[in-house]
Amino acid sequence: MKRSLSIIGLFITSLMFLIGCHSAQYTEFINKKDPNQLEASLICDIQDGRLDMPFEHACLIASGVDTDKKMQSYLTKIDTLISRISRETCVNNITDPLTKAQFLFDWLQRNANEGTYNDCYDIRDTLNLRVGNCLSYAIRYTIICRRFGIDIKNIFVPGHIYNMLLVKEQKHYFEHTHSDGIVKNADRDNPQKKIMNDLELIAEIFLYKARNANNEMKHEKSIKYCQQALTCNPYDNRPVILLLDNYIAKKSYEEAFRYLNDYISHHPDDKKTFKNTYTLLQRLCKKVNNNLPQSAQSTQKRR
Predict the structure, then answer these.
(1) DSSP characters over 247-273
(2) pTM, to two decimals
(3) Mind listing the pLDDT tens digit for each residue in 203-234?
(4) Residue 115 has what DSSP assignment?
(5) How far is Cα 288 from Cα 280, in angstroms, rounded to an integer?
(6) Residues in contact with 194: Cβ distance below 8 Å, sequence separation at least 6, in sequence order
(7) What are the φ/ψ torsions at residue 153 (nearest 5 degrees)?
(8) How far is CA 166 from CA 66, 171, 180, in A?
(9) pLDDT tens digits for 131-164?
């Protein structure tokens, strides 16, 4: 009897956990037949709008690490890199954060940056092959700086990401994709620049994956990654634009219209941005309904 009660209690506890961490909007890709447990744990973690797991774990999962064994392998690579820096340099003896940050930046540029490729967002490639783009290099630098006690920031401008350190109200910038390490004036003074939080960085990884899947016409995958990006950063309309593009490519016009209608109701400031798309989808939905047989139109109306 006691055993039966304990089993029931365990079942109820497990059920409550699942209810608590699963948003209805994303249930379709969390509850797969063979779910990626690490990915599910990340999505579950960020449902409340904050990241509780270690930043490097989240970046690796978003990039595609899908087993505990692979996770441990990449964490070991990070630890090895940290150990090498500590062994080959005097960085641990430096107390000034700016000097330390510059020291780490210069060392990485000399020893761990083999090339810049626009689409190389995957932190796994940066750890394995020492290649990357502005996002993956900035993420690796952030992970390393934090290990050495430096509060480095990630700065977003449309189409680019770089790092910043604030010391005594002075801003110091670090550019990973230019050989001189200097942030361009246009990026430094861009009126749209903003400091990114960790979830927004994770969202960028998912957004890259969504774009690649869309380019390969893998629309279901792209939709999934768009939804994951929006889970991380619900105020970014770029995944919304891409999500609608996927729906339209699939000719799922009514689904696209319902999604856009719902999005605008929660983000009224974006109504002007999506005005033309909204009108287009209205027309497409109307055209589809007009082409349906009369019986099907009656069914649509009852819905």
Answers:
(1) HHHTT-HHHHHHHHHHHHHH-GGGTTT
(2) 0.84
(3) 999 999 999 999 999 999 999 999 999 999 99
(4) E
(5) 12
(6) 155, 156
(7) -110, 155
(8) 35, 5, 20
(9) 999 999 999 999 999 999 999 999 999 999 999 9
